[in-house]
Design goal:
- The chain has 4 helices and 5 strands.
- It is an alpha+beta fold.
- The protein has a single domain, classed as Spore Coat Polysaccharide Biosynthesis Protein SpsA, Chain A, CATH 3.90.550.10.
- Strands 1, 2, 3, 4 and 5 form a 5-stranded mixed β-sheet that branches.
């Protein structure tokens, strides 16, 4: 399973690389790539290369943020826990999934993330800017 933003660009072969990585590592529940940042006109401006850190993942919504593919078997059990969130839902989802197994980082650009002033994390207030719900088992 994955999620994509309609204003970003994705490398088509990156999906296959991520799926192959998950197939090769049965204990992995999530795999992600690096991402290039784009300006509003779609020109790459820089590349974010972030090897996985559970600590950074817990403290930064943009740590696991490139192209992300997750095992359906790890996603489905946690979906009821994120139904009432807005922009923070993808972060919480990846954190809940990561607790179920290992996380793989593929050092290749899979996502080109378009930067613009109307992005949700740039707005003045959203549930994404408040604390996340507890990750404790309900």
């Amino acid at each position: 399973m994955s999620f994509v933003d309609p204003d970003d660009r994705y490398e088509a072969d990156a999906f296959a690389h991520l799926a192959d990585a998950l197939d090769a590592c049965p204990s992995a529940v999530l795999a992600y790539t690096d991402e290039a940042l784009m300006d509003e006109q779609g020109r790459d401006t820089s590349v974010r290369r972030l090897a996985y850190s559970a600590f950074q993942h817990a403290h930064s919504a943009s740590h696991v943020h490139g192209l992300i593919v997750m095992r359906r078997s790890a996603v489905e059990p946690v979906l009821p826990r994120i139904t009432d969130l807005d922009a923070g839902a993808d972060w919480l989802l990846t954190r809940l999934v990561a607790r179920q197994g290992s996380v793989l980082h593929l050092p290749l650009v899979g996502r080109h993330w378009r930067q613009h002033p109307n992005q949700h994390h740039r707005r003045t207030r959203s549930t994404a800017s408040g604390p996340l719900p507890s990750l404790a088992t309900p």
